């Protein structure tokens, strides 16, 4: 049987906006977070504490975190690639941090400027500091099925990185199809590799929709019992170090799928569609959610 309840981690404010070329004012990012929590999202990835030279769009990280009116029951997470990022992040009181590694050496170099082994060495003190402060630690494993530089990635590579992440005390691992090339059986194999080192409650799927496979991959994950997914409202986004990659699967589309399957998410689809339409209006862009487009056209 499929899971009866699914948790969606909204990554639109971070993964969705990090690649945006035009500056997006902190006030719009804060309004987006407010709209998302109003729609029932209970986990929101807000921003990244990364180098502003690498990702200028996230340079307002502290301002955005400070501007959010926190809603009880909502968990706010941020990306922290190193101790410098952690130190800046902890001052803003995140509920959770995300360290981000890769199953591909080439992507690790391009994205965080170090090898996989070096990344684990950098993450270890971050994980230790966060756990000592009572902050939960998630890890993302990028390029878990395919890499823009190396091509197909074998599940063994995911297993290795999941084992290393578990070894340094990471509590949850997100299996990320960064460039959206995955198809259901390959995505299942990557998830199964992560499941050798983390329990089912602590493995999530993070699927970009470049090839239109993300919803199929969500369904394939549900078949394994995976019940946590990163999604992005209106399909916002892309990764600056994965050229041509589109945004994550749209939150609206996943909510519609889950509603159709009778799976509870606690999310109000109409309010969610309004949140996505509002940020797309700010950006002057068409809505990337098929469900939002269909329902807004009625
Ligand atoms: P580096 O250049 O190797 O770092 O970058 P460094 O330690 O040598 O420091 C160089 C400079 O950066 C110094 O400044 C540091 O202070 C500064 P300078 O002295 O030259 O003025 N610096 C920082 N500034 C602010 N915050 C920090 C920080 N660290 C160093 N935390 C680094 C290494 C990791 C920092 C860099 O490569 C970086 O910022 N990369 C960002 C990558 C990124 O954000 N990618 C997108 C997010 S990941 C993603 O989207 C994938 C995901 O969605 C899953 C998926 O889909 O696959 C999660
Ligand atoms: Mg991503």
Automatic annotation (TrEMBL):
Presence of keyword Metal-binding: yes
Domain spans labelled Pyruvate carboxyltransferase: 6-273
Matching CDD domains: DRE_TIM_HMGL
Catalytic activity, EC: 4.1.3.4
Enzyme class: lyase
GO molecular function: hydroxymethylglutaryl-CoA lyase activity; metal ion binding; transferase activity
SUPFAM superfamilies named in the record: Aldolase (SSF51569)
InterPro entries assigned to the protein according to its UniProt record, in alphabetical order: Aldolase_TIM, HMGL, PYR_CT
Gene Ontology BP, a term: L-leucine catabolic process
Keywords: Lyase, Metal-binding, Pyruvate, Transferase
Pathway(s) served: Metabolic intermediate metabolism; (S)-3-hydroxy-3-methylglutaryl-CoA degradation; acetoacetate from (S)-3-hydroxy-3-methylglutaryl-CoA: step 1/1
Gene3D superfamilies (UniProt xref): Aldolase class I
Spans through the membrane: none
Keyword Membrane among record annotations: no
Alphabetical list of PROSITE patterns matching this protein: PYR_CT
UniProt similarity note: Belongs to the HMG-CoA lyase family.
Protein name: hydroxymethylglutaryl-CoA lyase
